[in-house]
UniProtKB/TrEMBL annotation:
It comes from Streptomyces silvensis. GO terms for molecular function: magnesium ion binding; phosphonopyruvate decarboxylase activity; thiamine pyrophosphate binding. It is an enzyme of class 4 (lyase). This is Phosphonopyruvate decarboxylase. It holds the Pfam family TPP_enzyme_C.
Length: 402
């Protein structure tokens, strides 16, 4: 058996300073230790954990994920369209519930236990195994092989059997309870939400456009690390700015905020602006809670709300019944505003970039129909996008792309 200390020391010795995850009892010991050391980010779901780790990785840090294989389905989206597509190396420790003998585990683990290896193989994801009989030397050997995959820009899974790693003293252990209490001790948002119920309908009726807003705030974005959600938002941001330093997401819908959070937590001196959409934000609304709990003061979250999935044909979302500003305030954001003019957005963003976050700015906009702009990948590769954003974080210029 590998002790908690040996497991965490092995990660630290190899430079891993960011671990996000969703708990499994197989990893209860390391999670308790990593939480105590201030290295662990408790994510709302496994996909968000991977997206946050990807953000930290692009920011130049070695990042890992801890999860149970029952959550592999949640990982598939960012695994297939973020880390694989952009060549982002993340180390994923995943427990092997329901394997090798499903009858020795709970019934809900049977299907995934038998399918885990096959699913990873189908996605061409490299994976290694830490058996129940593993020693610290065995772990070192596995990590040596994993490092080779990471060096090639690939996300790699380390599948971990029951009993391989020492468990925590108990679910209610003093360390875990103390860490949890500290995490919730901070006051929630400062009561600055401005949930103007009529703002959305007014802005949509008056035709406030996302492109209009992007043009108005373009000069402010030049001083920030910008992450834009998939769909028309990324197309229009690239079309308006032409910047090769923003991170344009194509895929991994709903995970822009988690990716930006990973960047913000590891680059506290850099303002991080996430340009999100209502449909994407709704898809992983739990990430707002993670942002509020971590409370990075350099994090600004802008949600363009047009009440639709515009790039897939304008199908309606449920944002009409969701008051994002109120949700964000309840989740612990320092401020949340609804802005229904380009001038108001500009003023709010300028203030938010001064720090004291996390801040949410909701921008009700009209549906624009088909976008007049091409995807960023019409001019750059996904590698160019990753490297351009990483160079921005290092304070350098990147000349990649056409």
């Amino acid at each position: 058996m590998i002790s908690n200390d040996d497991f965490c020391t092995a990660l630290a010795d190899r430079g891993f300073d960011f671990v996000a995850g969703v708990p499994c009892s197989y990893f209860s010991g390391p999670i308790e230790r990593l939480t105590r050391d201030g290295v662990y980010l408790p994510a709302a779901n496994e996909g968000a954990a991977l997206a946050a780790a990807a953000g930290a990785a692009v920011a130049g840090h070695r990042a890992a994920v801890i999860a149970q294989n029952s959550g592999l389905g949640n990982l598939v989206n960012p695994l297939a369209s973020l880390t694989a597509t952009y060549g982002i190396p993340v180390l994923v420790f995943m427990s092997l519930r329901g394997w090798p003998d499903p009858s020795q585990d709970e019934p809900q683990h049977e299907v995934m236990g038998l399918a885990t290896h096959k699913l990873l193989d189908a996605m061409d994801v490299p994976h290694l195994t830490v058996p129940a009989t593993a020693t610290t030397a065995d772990l070192a050997d596995v990590l040596d092989h994993a490092d080779a995959e990471l060096a090639a820009g690939r996300t790699v899974f380390v599948l971990t059997q029951k009993g391989a790693i020492e468990k925590a003293a108990g679910a209610g252990s003093a360390g875990a309870v103390a860490a949890g209490a500290a995490a919730v001790a901070a006051e929630p948002g400062a009561g600055t939400a401005e949930p103007d119920a009529g703002a959305a309908s007014r802005a949509r009726a008056e035709g406030l456009g996302r492109v209009e807003v992007l043009r108005a705030i373009e000069h402010l974005l030049e001083g920030a690390a910008v992450v834009s959600t998939t769909g028309y938002t990324s197309r229009e941001l690239f079309g308006v700015t032409g910047s090769k330093s923003h991170f344009y997401m194509q895929g991994s819908m709903g995970h822009a905020a988690a990716f930006g959070l990973g960047v913000a937590l590891r680059e506290p001196g850099t303002p991080v602006v996430v340009l999100d959409g209502d449909g994407a934000a709704l898809m992983h609304l739990g990430t707002l809670s993670t942002v509020g709990a971590e409370a990075p003061d350099n994090f600004v979250h802008v949600v363009f709300d047009n009440g639709s999935y515009e790039s897939t044909g304008g199908q309606v979302t449920t944002s009409h019944s969701t008051r994002f500003a109120v949700v964000a305030e309840g989740a612990g954001y320092a401020s949340a505003r609804v802005c229904d003019t380009a001038d108001a957005v500009t003023e709010a963003l300028a203030a938010a970039l001064g720090g004291g976050g996390p801040h949410l700015i909701v921008v009700p906009v009209a549906k624009a129909g088909a976008s007049a702009f091409s995807r960023a990948t019409a001019a750059m590769t996904t590698t160019d996008i990753r490297e351009g954003f990483a160079a921005r974080l290092r304070g350098e210029e990147h000349s990649g792309g056409g």
